[in-house]
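@channel sequence for tomorrow's demo:
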Amino acid sequence: MNENLRVVFESRNRQSCADRALVLTAAKIPSQFVDDGASCALVVPADFSVAAMRELQAYDEENPPAPPEPVRKIDYQDPLPGVVGYVLVICLVAGFAGFSFFQSNWFSAGRVDGELIRDGEIWRLFTALTLHSGIKHLLGNIVFGVLFGLFAGRLLGSGIAWLAIILAAAAGNGVNTLLLEATHRSIGASTAVFAALGLVAGYVWRGKLMSQSQNRWSNRYGPIVGGLALLMYTGTGGPNTDVGAHLLGFVCGFGTGMVMTNFGELPRDRHSQTLAGTAAISIVVFSWGVALLV
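structure tokens (generated this afternoon):
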């Protein structure tokens, strides 16, 4: 190729340059691919520049760029009733357990116990979410539960969000119990906290609530990466941390969020949210009722 060259195409997208290089090759037009690390270009001898431009114009007309995927508008909901209910429930249970209300040992009655859950005491998957080993444990789960609960409640509404969180967290406890030895025991709302985080990540990603155009991995997988980063940063520290419960809470929450996108538009009215929130609290109350009576 001689030194008298003309640039006929330039882009930061190397695939776009490669595709057009094939077009010129098919048209028997000599070309050279130039890449400086930041962008790339196609150059051709000056005598072929007009023909090359004509071929590339025809290619562009036959292959118009795909329109960007529409970003769904998010109709944010009121998250406060859900997080207030969450704080009240775990604080009330902490008080009841601390003073052994009803002359019961709330910890032995409600904690995750692998052997007893295998024997059918499924309610422990829910009751364990409301128990804490001390004030530091309780405060930590209040802070992060409120934070992630606000995100979930704004996205899905307080009632639906917390019903989904409780079900996903119980599933996380169940899977974690089955994967570990029968002697495994645990308590804490942290499984629910990370179920809330996973719920938001899964719903946002699967529902395409963020821009996923331009085929950029940061756009397509941003919610997943962000959720995992928060999980790693907030859910893996401390010698007594049940990392498996945190991870499986996140995974079950993520899966729940993905499934919920298949339900179409979720109900946003107050009545539906109240029903879902009542169902969430009823599950916890019923589980404790059974736990204290058995």
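heads up for whoever presents: Residues 42 and 240 are 59 Å apart (CA to CA).
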